[in-house]
Amino acid sequence: MTRVRWVIGNWKQNLLRGPAEALAKRMVAEIPNQLLEADHRLRIGIAPTFLALDAVSPWTRPSGPLWLCAQDIAAQDQGAFTGEIGPEMLAEAGVKCAIIGHSERRNHYREPDILVGAKLHHALKAGFTCVLCVGEPLDVRNQNRHESYVISQLSNAFHQLENELCSERLIIAYEPVWAIGTGKTATPSQASAMHRTIRAWLLERFGPAGGDRSILYGGSVKPANAATLMAAGDIDGFLVGGASLDASKFLDIVHAAANG
Ligand code: PGA
């Protein structure tokens, strides 16, 4: 089976509604129809801030080529959870996909593995496509403990996940913390070695359905390094931060993923 390739732009806490809408519109205008028609296994997503979701939504699925993604999702639908936004609310806004456990949430807001796992479980059950982010900080890599660190993030997140939730809707993003927003990218061999480790773990945990999951790389992806990363093998696309705020850079990365 050919795995689905994804390129998702994580706009983080950037762009007010007007500029967000303009960027989405420009992306849609510049994505050649043939690209998606010729390649049914390629998906392109954008994750604006929550408050720009409705401004951007007219350019996303079902009518447009972009998937509307949320940067986070609550672990419960509704209730006394100040500041949270849950699956039902996001679904109403047209969101189909959620990023879960981004290292900025884990590090700046101390989101523990147990909460990441609860969000993942709830969002998958609610029908969302989920991008689970994992990745080690620099000191862990320097101590050569990166593989066991990432495997422990995975096993904690999947602690209670039923096997039937391991489907095409489950995506992993390997994002080494030291490569995010720093301009330092993992080398293609560092990235693909970790992707192989993750795939082997998923295969053991979920059987063949685990081995078929899309594994994206994130961390200072740009047009200049996207094609080389794709060529390293076992990389099924990208989660892109900084470069996704520029339509032409983002689309160059999309082309690299499509051709890789
Ligand atoms: P970056 O961010 O591309 O700016 O390094 C990636 C991410 O945080 O997903």
The CATH class, by name, is Alpha Beta
Strand adjacency order, main sheet? 1-2-3-4-5-6-7-8
* SS element count, helices: 12
Succession of helices and strands: EHHEHEHEHHEHHEHHEHEH
Q: Give Rg in angstroms.
A: 17 Å
CATH superfamily: Aldolase class I
CATH architecture: Alpha-Beta Barrel
Helix content: 40-55%
Alpha-beta classification: alpha/beta
> In what range is the share of β-strand residues?
15-25%
Number of β-strand runs: 8
Descriptive overview:
The protein is of the alpha/beta class and 260 residues long. The protein has a single domain, classed as TIM Barrel. Helix content is 43%, strand content 16%. It is built from twelve helices and eight strands. An eight-stranded parallel barrel has the order 1-2-3-4-5-6-7-8, surrounded by five helices.
A few lines on this structure:
With 260 residues, the chain is an alpha/beta fold. The protein contains twelve helices and eight strands. The site of 2-phosphoglycolic acid has 13 residues, from strand 8.
Main attributes?
8-stranded parallel β-barrel; 260 residues; binds 2-phosphoglycolic acid; alpha/beta; TIM Barrel; 43% helix
List the helices and strands and how they pair.
Elements lengths: L4 E6 L6 H14 L2 H6 L3 E6 L5 H4 L9 E5 L16 H6 L4 E4 L2 H6 L4 H13 L3 E6 L3 H5 L3 H12 L12 E5 L13 H19 L1 H4 L2 E5 L4 H9 L5 E4 L6 H13 L1
Parallel strand pairs: 1-2, 1-8, 2-3, 3-4, 4-5, 5-6, 6-7, 7-8
2-phosphoglycolic acid (PGA) binds next to β8.
